[in-house]
Amino acid sequence: MDESAEPFSFGEDLNLGAKLPKPVAILAGLAVIVEVVLSLVLAATVKVPLWLDETLTVNIASKPLSELPSVLRHDGAPPLFYGMLHGWMAIFGQSSTAVRMLPTCISAVTLLATFFIVKRIWTRPIAVMTVAILAGAPYFVYYSSECRMYALVMLESVLLLGALEWALTSPTRWRLAAVAGSVAALLYTHYWSIYLLALVFCWVAYYAFFGENRSPARKTLLAIVAGGVAFLPWAPVFLFQLGHTGTPWSGVQPISVVVEIFAWFSFNQAALFQVPSLHYQLLIVGYLGLGAIGLLGIASGRFTLTLDLRVQRRARLVAIWSVGTVVMGSFISMLSSSAVVTRYASVAFIPFVILMALGIASFGEPWLRLLLVIGLGGVGLWSANQYHGTGRTESPRIAAALESFAKPGDVVAFCPDQLAPSTLRILPLEEKLHVKAIGYPHFDRSPEIIDWIDYEAAIRAADPTEFAKRLDALAGPDHRVWLVSQPYAPGLHGKCIDLRASLNKVRPGVGKLVVAVDLHRYFMPMQLIVFPGPKSDKIETVR
Question: Which of 50, 140, 433, 447, CA to CA, is 20 to 30 A from 424?
Answer without folding.
Answer: 140
